[in-house]
Specification:
This protein is mainly beta and about 100 residues long. The chain has a domain at about 1-25 and about 70-95: Roll (Nuclear Transport Factor 2, Chain: A). The protein is built from 1 helix and 8 strands, in the order βββαβββββ. The strands form 3 sheets. The protein has a 4-stranded antiparallel beta sheet, with no helix packed on it. The radius of gyration is 22 Å and the shape is elongated.
Length: about 100
């Protein structure tokens, strides 16, 4: 996908629309310390046989599980204000294989 190197965008620090330089950054992998993984780690250490463990006591349902990985990653664009040099990130990425700044 082709995208312009600069675009006019609202800067919250300047409180007005200014030119922003667009750059792509490698997206970070999600943290392994989410609520579910913390809960599972806690339950692994706990002695089994002491009551129901809620949804962690049931076996994983694998009948409709989606397999394989996605072909594309979401973009992680950063916008740098040309006036105050403050950087903002985009709110939500979109899936594309390759991004090219023109």
């Amino acid at each position: 996908m082709k995208m312009p190197k600069t675009r006019k965008k609202y800067c919250p620090k300047c409180n007005k629309h200014t030119e922003h330089k667009v750059s792509s950054v490698k997206r970070k992998s999600p943290s392994s310390l989410k609520y579910g993984s913390k809960m599972r780690a806690k339950l692994r250490g706990r002695a089994r046989g002491k009551g129901n463990l809620g949804r962690y006591s049931k076996p994983a349902v694998t009948k409709w599980k989606m397999t394989g990985k996605k072909q594309t990653k979401k973009t992680d664009l950063r916008y740098q204000c040309s006036v105050c040099k403050k950087t903002q990130t985009q709110s939500s990425g979109f899936r594309i294989k390759k991004i090219e700044f023109t």
